[in-house]
Amino acid sequence: MRRLHGAGRWRECAQLFDVGGATSIDAGGATITLDKASNFGSSIALKGKGAWIVNTSAIVLGKSQIDGPLTITTSGAISQVGVVEVTGNTTIAAGAT
C-alpha cells in the first residue's frame, strides 16, 4: 500500500499519478487536490479537509473521511470497499457504470 502524508495543502499538480496498488492519502486538515488525470488502479483511501480527484479509469474508494466537499471525476465506474464519510457536498461524474 502506498501512503502519502502531508501538512498544509496537499497537491500534486506537475505530474499525474499512475498507481497499481492500494493508496492511502492523509492530508490531515488540508485539502487534497489531484486535478491531473491520474490512474489509481486499485482502491484509494482519503483523509482531509476536502478532496478533488480526477482519474482516468474506474476508481474504488476505500475507507475515507472528508471534512468538507468531495469531487470525483473519472472516465470509468466508481465503487467503494469502505465507509466514505463526507461532511460537505459530494459531486461525482463517472464515465461508465
Characterize this entry briefly.
The protein is built from no helices and 13 strands.
Can you walk me through this structure?
With 97 residues, the chain is an all-beta fold. 0% of the residues lie in helices and 58% in strands. It contains no helices and 13 strands. The strands form two sheets. Strands 1, 4, 6, 8, 9, 11 and 12 form a seven-stranded parallel sheet that branches. Strands 2, 3, 5, 7, 10 and 13 form a six-stranded parallel sheet that branches.
Number of strands: 13
Radius of gyration from the alpha-carbon trace, in angstroms: 12 Å
Number of helices: 0
Q: Would you tell me the overall average pLDDT?
A: 82
Structural class determined from secondary elements: mainly beta
Strand content: over 45%
Instruction: Note the main sheet.
Output: 7 strands, parallel
Order of helices and strands: EEEEEEEEEEEEE
Distance between the termini: 26 Å
